[in-house]
Design goal:
Chain B: Keywords: Cytoplasm, Endosome, Membrane, Protein transport, Transport. The complex is a heterodimer of chains A (about 200) and B (about 250). Chain A is an alpha+beta fold and about 200 residues long. Chain A is built from five helices and eight strands, in the order αβββαββαβααββ. In chain A, a hairpin with a 6-residue loop joins strand 7 and strand 8. Chain A is elongated. In chain B, helix 4 crosses helix 6 and helix 8 packs across helix 9. Chain B is elongated and about 105 Å long. The chains are: A alpha+beta (about 200), B mainly alpha (about 250).
């Protein structure tokens, strides 16, 4: 898969106070709005569907002058800005996630209210994915055909589409929406699940 | 009998007759001239209208031409920004209508965009924004061939907003002009802090104490005031808390 290239960070990413929770209510709201937009565009750029909130390779408390590898794991440099050495705390990060949740753009992976460490970032919601797939079915005249989930995400036939290579769990969510819309039917078990489009 | 020129009373009478003739001739002349004048004026008017329309593009795209045009209008006593539906008599309203249209449109549109930028950024800057940043923001969002906008243009555009009351005004912090779109006025200490922030983009309590020779409490109060107004952001991950101007986020 081709790498999308480096993400063009906005100015606020290099603004030290951006990583401190602002006390002024209005300022804080502007801050949350900017963070939300940043998280969404960053994840869209890297095609990150599930975002870890505290990356595995946590840096130590003391600042080091060690160079970070150029190909850092996507997600690592979102809440930490190496050039200015500022990090958004986990507590403040959760606040951003909750802000996104209100807009339906985020969901904790464990489900329910339990706040784990991995989050669905819906830079495209399951509903939006559903509409995309529906459109593709129309365009390619696939109504009435049956496909496996694997074919949809990994098959040659879907190469070049937006949903090729997408997280299969998220695709399932999207297909469930299509089922509700009466546009599809899912059958089969686990590994050999298939979908028929109407 | 003979109406030929003569002297004496007869001549006097004749001169009176001539005067009357001259008078009537004069008034004929005047009315003829007035007619000619009006024809001339209407020709002039339409030429002027053509000029304004032809050069509308130049007025929009060339700030030097625009400034010169504005100066020319001022020199002949015409306010190009005057409302075109003014009922003031004389040539003024007519001229304003002919010449002012394109200039009017330009500044009106600019004022609208300035108001938009102020509205969009009020959350992050508390309603105080440097004119330079507004200009940069507008130039960045401009379409190809849109022409240059100067800080002078922005100041004029904000001037046209005066009828909206004190909602939009130009304030100076140090030597730099800012647009203030909230009623809150800055006191001396707050202005001094904002001026100090201009130097590095941020200040700390220690920096204010050292450079302005203020007591700690005074520095803290001014900074907290400004944070309270949403005009400064605070960074708590530095050794000493640092207070930043939000303008940094608008830089290109």
């Amino acid at each position: 898969t081709t790498s999308p290239g480096p993400f063009p960070f906005p100015r606020e990413y290099f603004f030290p106070p951006f990583f401190t929770r602002q006390t002024n209510l209005t300022t804080h709201h502007a801050q949350l709005t900017k963070w939300s937009a940043l998280v969404l565009s960053y994840c869209r750029h890297h095609r990150i569907f599930k975002l870890p909130l505290s990356p595995a390779s946590t840096t130590t408390g003391t600042s080091t002058t060690a160079d970070k590898p150029i190909s850092a794991t996507p997600g690592e440099d979102l809440f930490y800005s190496p050039k200015i050495n500022r990090r958004l705390s986990l507590v403040d990060t959760r606040e951003v996630i909750n802000f996104l949740k209100k807009d339906g753009r985020a969901e904790y992976v464990a489900g329910g209210d339990k706040e784990g460490d991995v989050v669905w970032i819906y830079w495209r919601t399951p509903e939006e994915w559903a509409t995309l797939v529906e459109g593709w079915v129309e365009e390619t005249g696939q109504k009435g055909s049956v496909l496996t989930l694997y074919e949809l995400t990994e098959g040659e036939g879907t190469r070049g589409t937006e949903f090729h290579g997408m997280d299969s769990e998220l695709l399932q969510k999207a297909l469930s929406v299509l089922v509700k819309r009466g546009k599809a039917q899912i059958f089969g078990q686990e590994d050999s699940q298939g979908v028929k489009f109407f | 009998m003979s109406s030929r020129k003569g002297v004496g009373l007869a001549a006097f009478d004749r001169s009176r007759l001539n005067s009357a003739q001259y008078a009537s001739h004069g008034s004929t002349l005047r009315s003829t001239n007035a007619q000619a004048l009006e024809t001339q004026l209407s020709v002039f008017r339409s030429l002027l209208q053509q000029f304004a329309t032809t050069h509308a593009k130049d007025i929009r795209s060339n700030p030097t031409f625009r400034a010169q045009f504005a100066r020319m209008c001022a020199a002949i006593g015409v306010d190009p920004l005057a409302s075109s539906n003014t009922s003031s008599g004389g040539g003024n309203s007519v001229w304003a209508q002919l010449l002012g249209r394109s200039v009017n449109d330009f500044y009106f549109e600019l004022a609208v965009r300035v108001v938009e930028v102020c509205g969009e950024t009020r959350g992050e800057n508390g309603g105080l924004i440097e004119v330079r940043k507004v200009r940069e923001g507008l130039m960045r969002g401009r379409m190809e061939g849109g022409g240059e906008i100067t800080e002078d243009d922005i100041l004029r555009a904000v001037g046209t907003l005066k009828p909206l009351g004190s909602a939009y005004s130009i304030v100076r912090v140090g030597s730099k002009p800012y647009i203030r779109s909230v009623p809150k006025e800055l006191n001396m200490d707050q202005s001094a802090v904002l001026e100090a922030v201009q130097v590095l983009g941020y200040v700390s309590v220690s920096m204010l104490m050292a450079n302005l020779r203020w007591a700690r409490a005074r520095a803290q109060t001014a900074l907290e005031d400004l944070v309270g107004e949403g005009m400064l952001w605070v960074d708590k991950q530095s050794e000493e808390w640092e207070y930043w101007s939000p303008g940094f986020m608008m830089e290109s």
